[in-house]
Amino acid sequence: MTTIHPSSSDLQSKRERFIPRGVSNGNQNIALKATGATVTDIDGNEWIDFAGAIGTLNVGHSHPKVTEAVKQQAEKFLHPGFNVMMYEGYIELAEKLCRITPGDFDKQALLLNSGAEAVENAVKIARRYTKRQAVVSFTRGFHGRTNMTMSMTSKVKPYKFGFGPFAPEVYQAPYPYTYHRPEGMTEEAYVDQVIEDFRDFFVTTVAPETVACVVMEPVQGEGGFVIPPKKFVQAVHEFCKEHGIVFVADEIQTGFGRTGTLFAIEQFDVIPDLITVSKSLAAGLPLSGVVGKTEIMSAAAPGELGGTYAGNPVACAAALAVIDIIKAENLNQKSEMIGQKIEAKLRELAEQHEFASEIRRLGSMVAVEIVEDRLNKAPDKEKTNSIIKYANENGLLLLSAGIKGNVIRFLAPLVITEKELDKGLNILEKAFADVSH
């Protein structure tokens, strides 16, 4: 029996009528099925996925081991509620997360639903443990869309504009952006200056003895895939240790192989007190977690942490499969190989197009900055949007990022085949050529 789907135009008009315009859509087509790094729409068109549901699909769409684990769990039960009656999946996943995250100290893990919820709970836990109130995040950081995580997020439009008042006692510290350092200043001198500015921040803006936690993305995601120098990350971590501040690594977009190691923070030789995880943890199902030192995690009393759907067993089953897949299929190593190939293509395109400026990469977390002029480095949001638009109209799911909206970012599934990757990069090449005319 053939399933008859509503037409794309019918669904698109329903979307306009029944879904708020505040929910953005980078691509106006309607997905029917997806496997690996290819999505097929209801009209039979194929799309190479360089977006990965904003970094959620490191093991790809519909990985057979994930779908099998989900089916098996769904046949047993969907959700008794961990706060009502415990189940094996939550406990097994908590143990696994404690074992695979950095640090050989005793750890515990709390499971939740979304990245924002994980960050919010990390803040709650840090406040409970330290008995302090202030929270420090960073310029250009993104941590979510709840009131607390909006407060921690840097970009005003579209994330914060008109949604205040925001949570009090949240402060944003300086974070290095070496591409935009002052002209004539060496990178080393610039990093030293930002470290000095960071320390001064705790004199001019907030006293360290009032700060519960510093929450840092090891690589800024929405901020434009900005990679901080190792020296800066280590200086922040040392400052936290010096002042009894909980250091939280927000690995929601960087985790599970995206940067070529299981967690990005490993590449900075820093062991966080707490780490937040989500996105690629459960291959597209809603799941997140806070993992960290037992003495910190256990500060909250029974009933103070949790949530109705937190740690859903079907999502836990998917996550356990994801962690096995990453190891079995060597996805950390494959991430580096994918990143190298994307970077090589971007360098080739940069030789042809003046608007393609700095290329940044850690593993397969790759970005290119689009500018009007390489000398003045003026951001070109219009050209960036044109490239994204061409890609999305011609078979490539592609995303932008950055405070000025002029960064193209790459979050292809780590299971992408050579054929899929080549096809996607060919479309990207045509997109660059198209906006040059």
Summarize the model shown.
The chain is an alpha/beta fold and 437 residues long. Helix content is 39%, strand content 16%. It has a 7-stranded mixed beta sheet, sandwiched between helices. The protein has a 4-stranded mixed beta sheet with strand order 1-2-3-13.
Can you walk through the features of this model?
It is a single chain. By secondary structure, this protein is an alpha/beta fold. It contains 13 helices and 15 strands. The mean pLDDT is 96. It has helices at 8-18, 52-55, 64-76, 88-100, 115-130, 147-152, 187-204, 230-243, 294-297, 313-328, 331-352, 381-393, 418-436, and strands spanning 31-35, 38-41, 46-49, 107-112, 134-138, 170-173, 211-216, 246-250, 274-277, 288-293, 356-362, 365-370, 396-397, 399-401, 407-410. The protein has two domains: 8-59 and 330-436, Alpha-Beta Complex (Aspartate Aminotransferase, domain 1); 66-328, Type I PLP-dependent aspartate aminotransferase-like (Major domain) (Aspartate Aminotransferase, domain 2), CATH 3.40.640.10. Strand 2 and strand 3 (46-49) form a beta hairpin. A seven-stranded mixed beta sheet has the order 4-10-9-8-7-5-6, sandwiched between helices. A four-stranded mixed beta sheet has the order 1-2-3-13. The protein has a four-stranded antiparallel beta sheet with strand order 11-12-15-14, with helices on one face. Helix 4 runs parallel beside helix 10. It is an enzyme of class 2 (transferase).
